[in-house]
Amino acid sequence: MPVRVESDEVVLLGICPAGTHVFSNGVYQPNPPVTMGPVRGGSPSGWVGRSQRISPTRVQHWDGHYTPTPVIYLRAESFNSKTRLAVRLRDDQDRYWAAKPEPQGTRSGVRPYLAEVPPDVKTAVAEIVVLNEVRAIFEVRTK
C-alpha cells in the first residue's frame, strides 16, 4: 500500500525472513526464474545481481538482497534528498529498536532495513519514520 510523504511515495514491500530476496525493477519476485545467494567471503548482508537475455533485443535484470536477519523492504524511488527514511520496531511493552539500513544502500528504489530485536520479543510493529532536514547554527566564542 503506497503512502504519500509530501510529493513522494513510499511503499512497504514486505517484512521478510532471513535469506535471499529477489527484485526486478523494484518489484518483489516471489518465484524468480534465477537463483542467487550471498557472496562467499563477503559482507553478512548485501546486494547481488544477475542478468539474462530474454530475446535478441531485451535483457532482464534481477537484484538479489541477502541477509542473516529478518528484513523490512521499502520502495521509495524518487524520494526527496533532503528527507530521510528510517524504520523502527516497537514491541508490546513500548520498547523501540532502530532497524539498520542496508550498508550497501539501495537498488532500483528498494531500501532494505535489517530488523534485529532481543530474543524475548515475540511481536513487534514496524514504524516508518520520516526525518526532515534540520538546520542548526552553532556559534562558538573563544577567549
Order of helices and strands: EEEEEEEEEEEE
**Helicity level:** under 10%
Rg from alpha-carbon coordinates? 18 Å
What sort of overall outline do the alpha carbons produce when their principal axes are compared?
globular
Strand order of the largest sheet: 1-2-7-11-10
* Share of β-strand residues: over 45%
Q: Report the mean per-residue pLDDT as an integer.
A: 89
Name a few traits of the molecule.
143 residues, mainly beta, globular
Give structural notes.
Helix content is 0%, strand content 52%. With 143 residues, the chain is an all-beta fold. The protein has a five-stranded antiparallel β-sheet, with no helix packed on it.
Q: What topology does this entry show?
A:
Elements: E1 2-5, E2 8-16, E3 19-24, E4 27-29, E5 46-55, E6 58-67, E7 71-75, E8 83-91, E9 96-98, E10 100-101, E11 110-114, E12 124-132
Antiparallel strand pairs: 1-2, 2-7, 3-4, 3-6, 5-6, 7-11, 8-9, 8-12, 10-11
Summary of the model, kept short:
With 143 residues, the chain is an all-beta fold. It is 0% helix and 52% strand. The model has no long low-confidence stretch (mean pLDDT 89).
